[in-house]
């Protein structure tokens, strides 16, 4: 049974994977009254009773005030803020399932980093379409946020974006605690695309790491990858400085350099010779970058943006390029020397 915390802001977090559970911990450690929704009843019971999520955050003790349930109506009851942390490709279906019971005045915060296949919509666009709420009630959180490090309470910074600076500020204050701080901006497009695109570059880093290439190759991919990220995002209306900040460069560094990154891990398996289907079977969690490659390339083509690194990743995923052949082609799409 959930016991309300007097005077605390009521918050619902939907999705009890590593990131959803970690963000529920962030919020609870910041003093919010947090309810976490897990699809599986046994996982919700473990979190609620044992304060553990052994599937996704082994060894982490969760706050005593954190409550969980597999009954979504109980989790959403009275929520002033709803944080969404479900796989990006299932967001629309989930919102159609429970959108009607979403608290009408709640602020909706996306924790997801993906682009929907087919529609090529960003997550905030899916939320806007399915819930019909004002854009001022939608925020997105992004940045260099490796879940296990944050769950271990290692100092971390993030960025919260909303078309309303007031909304972004309120969410940033809500998520702040002694080990987690959030900056704010109003560039939702750049913040979301930064979180998506860095995953694709991290897959490339993982591929060359799995092959056995060294730091020179990785540095070239990261540097030129940031150029691709910026060119793409600006073409869709983002501010270039957003991609130089936490949602772009910051997240790119963390995701490319860490073995905790799911996208890096997926790429490394591809580089070691595993097929795309084998990688999917081995991954315990969703690597959003794998499902975002195709829609991002479609969006890039629509704007005439050239993305040689992402294109090469797509070829490896399709099995039409040997991972060992990827590095010589990654930093340019032409044999003619290009201006930097």
From TrEMBL:
Class of enzymatic activity (EC top level): oxidoreductase
This protein's major location comes to: cytoplasm
Q: Which Pfam families match?
A: NAD_Gly3P_dh_C, NAD_Gly3P_dh_N
Tell me if Kinase is a UniProt keyword of this record: no
> What pathway, per the record?
Membrane lipid metabolism; glycerophospholipid metabolism
EC numbers: 1.1.1.94
Per UniProt, NADPH binds at: 18-19, 39-40, 56, 113, 147, 262, 288
Q: What chemistry does it catalyse, as a reaction equation?
A: sn-glycerol 3-phosphate + NADP(+) = dihydroxyacetone phosphate + NADPH + H(+); sn-glycerol 3-phosphate + NAD(+) = dihydroxyacetone phosphate + NADH + H(+)
Q: Which UniProt keywords apply?
A: Cytoplasm, Lipid biosynthesis, Lipid metabolism, NAD, NADP, Nucleotide-binding, Oxidoreductase, Phospholipid biosynthesis, Phospholipid metabolism
Annotated positions binding sn-glycerol 3-phosphate: 113, 143, 198, 251, 261-263
Give start and end of each Glycerol-3-phosphate dehydrogenase NAD-dependent N-terminal domain. Answer: 11-165
Q: Which family does it belong to?
A: Belongs to the NAD-dependent glycerol-3-phosphate dehydrogenase family.
How is this protein named in the record? Glycerol-3-phosphate dehydrogenase [NAD(P)+]
Please state the gene responsible for encoding this protein.
Answer: gpsA
